[in-house]
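User: What would this chain look like folded?
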Amino acid sequence: MHNDRNSVFKAEFDKGILNLHTRGITVTNGKPGAVFISGNGRCFFNTNSIQCLVSESEVETFLGKADKKTFLWTDGQNCRLKWEACLLRNNPGLTLKVSFYNGSGSSVKLKDLILLDTGKDNAACEGGKKGWYLSTLTESRRMGALDEEVPSQFEITQEICGAFKCSMPPVPDEERFMSRQVRSFSDYMCLYKDRGNTGIMMAAVGAPEADINIECHIGAERIGFKTASEMSGVLVEPGTWRDSQELFITSSPYNEAVTTVMKWLAASHGSRIKRGPVSGWCSWYDLGFDITAQSIDGLAQAYSKKYRNDIRFDVIQVDDGFQAVIGDWKYHEKFPGGLEKFVKTVKSAGAIPGIWLAPLIVHEKTGLKQRHPDWFQKTPSGGDAVVKTNWGGKSHALDPTHPEAREFIKSIILDYKKQGFEYFKIDFTLVDAESEFYDKTKTRLQALRGLYALYRQLLGEEIYLMSCFITFTRGSMGYADASRVGFDSCALWRDPNPCCLYDCIRAAGYASFANGIIFATDPDVTYLKPRDGLTEEELRTWHSFVGLNGGITMISEPIQNGQYDNYLRNFGVITPDSPEKAISLNGACDKEHKLFGFSAKREYGNFATVMLWNPGEKPAGMALDASFLEEKLGNFHVWSFWDEKYLGVVRDGSVIKDIAPHGCKILRLTPVSEKNDPLLIGSNLHISMGAAEIQDFSVSSKHITVKLERSGAKTGKLIISSGRNIELHKAANCVVSSVKQADKGIFEIEISQRKKDLCQEIILSFAK
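Assistant: Here's the prediction, encoded as structure tokens.
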């Protein structure tokens, strides 16, 4: 059995052992297995000394037809292990799935189903480790070059706990946590070189069954993989089967592989993209826990009466600090009248009232844990699975599979729904991997998804649900309209504390491929102006990531105090989102996503918008590498957004000089017209520079007509390349204050007083 698609992926099986040869990577001696707990203690289903039965068939998969090979082993206790490998005909890849049958006379607890175990040194990279890059699609500090030594998971946890000034959680004394030579990732692992053209990706796909843990053992010369479907100790009764999560292994180029995985997950787990991303205001980074009814009502009133024509808030959301105590969701004494006035004001302004909730978490002050200890997540030994200290004292997590705990959660959601909230930000959804659930048939992933299914059922189809995790997760796919994809974006550039903008950029870049396919991604808030030590360059870099990402776009400043009036345009240029969503253009080998952008296809002419940013401590030049873009540009006009400057006609590979430390350049790349026709080559009305705010651009023998959408800032400029001089003919629903030549054949059209509720049209004439 083999796949010879372009000779880049060959899989061969010899007596139930997988040998895999892909583009640049060789894997040998790959085997399945299982780990379970019975009356005899911890047991391993080892296929080494057991004869297997083999069958073959043709099956249909998400990626079309595949050749399926099934291996079946039966041990002395009549337990069985089934390993299914589907070799894809239309993709250089395969899928693996393991099923366990309990043929014994008693129940067992299933810990892991091993999808692929090569041992520690039965895989090798072409040319050795140099040049290969190991990464994932979720937030992780363990990404990096294969020949680079990165801290162990234990060391990283230590550093983070030190930054948060909290006690260390229990860390299992296992190699994957303690060793620097083992890098462990959840659900996704990418090993590539050559700018993502050579390598493999492993990813969880198919029906949602369980989390997958993927380990890469890094030796002096060789590597090894161990990939396990984490079954959470689910109870498997005698005479029943239990399936693993399906694993996809592909040698497609990185960007193609990630896009395939996202589309597969959208099909198997569900997607919610109808509502799209929203923009707005969140209270957390204003006053944190210290919000009051006056501060919240003041913001809502100011937006309603003064600012709604200047900026667009789809949502105005109250965050943590309004409640009496976590787990007792009555209002704090700072909110004597609750939030009824706030809800009415927000709705009257045409926005959606939003609320932050953490329904799974209960503080010890409530006494609920003392009254109903069985409602809470426990470890197999009976200890507390989740202990948090964010609100002083101890807080614990409810068991999302317990019927009475679910009724308690239900009452919280329905109460705030009844109060008129139509945007729910659900936080602290802590379903622990070590928990033994009330429903002993549920894995951690299934318990989490069951909770989000409950949320969606209670909220209905129209209420917006934002899941607030610190990582990109399958837990809320199909239920949440949007999902946080990283830590909090505190106004801090880089720190051991992961709630800093540098780490947020890393997380948002990797999750960008899910944006608009599975849900809207939320990188967390941006800021209108520098604060708390952030430099202008650092803020521009983060602001640009948020804007080009095209997902949730929120700010948190107290605009009602009038100190931000001169900075509101910074929010205007990133709202609403662009139809095109930026992706990390070299994500396979660049954890900092120094090249981030998109190609835009339009009838009047295609272009690209790209961001180059410098994570270093000194000014640096960076090559403008457009080879990642779908549109092959050749020679192109370059216009720089933040500089408001035309950089001339350049070629792919040209160096953009003097990018400030932690700073960026946002560039529009427009192919030069072979016929010297007039071209739109820039805009500072929106950070997408034409993708969001330009409806159409047309040229006749006498005129250039620009039609603008209701997007972007109220004031700004358009940049047009024309071999003939141009002047204003007329404008509708805006004011054109000037048309001036900025460079040879380059014209700037200054626009103001755009009517935000109406599209605008500008007609320019060729000067005689």
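Residues 1-6 have pLDDT under 50 and may be disordered. If you want, I can go into more detail on any region.
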